[in-house]
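Protocol step 4 of 5: obtain the predicted structure for the target chain.
Materials: sequence only (see below). No template structures provided, no constraints applied. The aim of this step is simply to have a reference model before the mutagenesis design in step 5. Sequence pasted as it appears in the construct record:
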Amino acid sequence: MGYGSKGGRRPHGIEDSDVPLLLELPLFSGLTREELLALLSDARVAVAPAASLLFLQGDPARHFYVVLKGWVKLFRTTAEGDEAIIAVIPQGQSFAEAAVFEEGSYPVSAAMIDDSRLLCIPAEPFLEKVINDRHMVMKMMASMSRRLRQLVNQVEDLSLKSSVERVAGYLAGLCAEATGAAIVRLPLDKAVIAKHLGMQPETLSRSFARLRSQGVVAEGNTVRISDVADLRRLSRQEGDSRSGVA
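Step 4 output (structure tokens):
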């Protein structure tokens, strides 16, 4: 990756404000600050502009990443040339770990949705440091397990939930708040969000219209939510009742 970081940052571009975010990742939780920084001594921060490619499907998996700021989309290109979005990675999440641990190639492509800061962690020195550390191996497994659950939940949403509930769940996932009012910015064009949620653009528009009665008002890419808790309840309502989840 050709992007660099400049300016008065600590070595490799990791700032003091980045450390709490990194320690919240399942991969690194439980480590002390000193252990974390030692583990990431070969990593570096890169600043990437919106719409830039990070890697392509099939490229050798030589790094995995943490989104320090911004949004990254993971996608595959179909035989017809269409783009199928696999996941949207927000600030505070890691991605591409599984490809690195398998010492294989990236199964998807990755591109910036907006201007982003990424922590780029090179595979070889990282794996050398943890290969004999059982504690760290367990943390890596937890991270991959969580990502698998997210993908299973995504498939479940597409098969069990109505379009309104899928949109409600997507919006709730953009909120840092658990309750109360919130204002969020859609990280993708609405046509791309519709494809990601498995619906047509006109269905997405109708779903936003129906959510007005739940206190959700969309103005361009800005969405005002009167109560995040209500939105979360709505997103779980139908799927929970069908699957028997209490």
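Step 4 remarks: Confidence is low (pLDDT under 50) at residues 1-11, 238-246. The chain has two domains: 11-158, 161-243.
Proceed to step 5.
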